[in-house]
Specification:
elongated; membrane
Length: 136
């Protein structure tokens, strides 16, 4: 159980680097990554959404110590990521194929995050069985 817990912690730490890094970059530099000129309001919205992304990544990092006891938080964060991914998927259908980076983001949002959530649930259940406790 301990080995699987450590592997889960390492995997989540690595994957959560994506929203932390991209969110922080977006907050600091805005739309500069795309090179597109946008209105001040669109820039403000982009930075706000980047801040949310940063917060989600930090939220995942906050589950790392005692990851086996943070199922509720982990599920909520995963739900937020999946909802964002569904929004991206709808956009793909409405406006076409985005850049390769955005398609990669879609894969993380709709495949990787749910798999990590299922894995976290497995580790939490193993912990509960081993310690005779249920998650609060």
């Amino acid at each position: 159980m301990e080995r699987e817990r450590k592997l889960l912690q390492q995997s989540v730490a690595i994957v959560a680097t994506i929203p932390v890094a991209t969110g922080l970059y977006g907050v600091l530099f805005g739309q500069a990554l795309t090179g597109d000129a946008v209105s001040i309001s669109a820039e403000s919205h982009f930075r706000f959404m980047s801040g949310l992304l940063l917060g989600i990544g930090l939220g995942f990092w906050s589950t790392l110590p005692g990851i086996e006891t943070h199922t509720g938080r982990f599920r909520l964060l995963t739900l937020l990521i999946v909802i964002g991914g569904l929004g991206r998927l709808i956009g793909l259908g409405l406006t076409g194929l985005p850049s390769l980076f955005m398609v990669g983001g879609l894969a993380v949002e709709l495949v990787v995050a749910p798999i990590l959530c299922l894995w976290q649930t497995r580790v939490a259940n193993l912990y509960a069985d081993e310690h005779g406790v249920a998650e609060p």
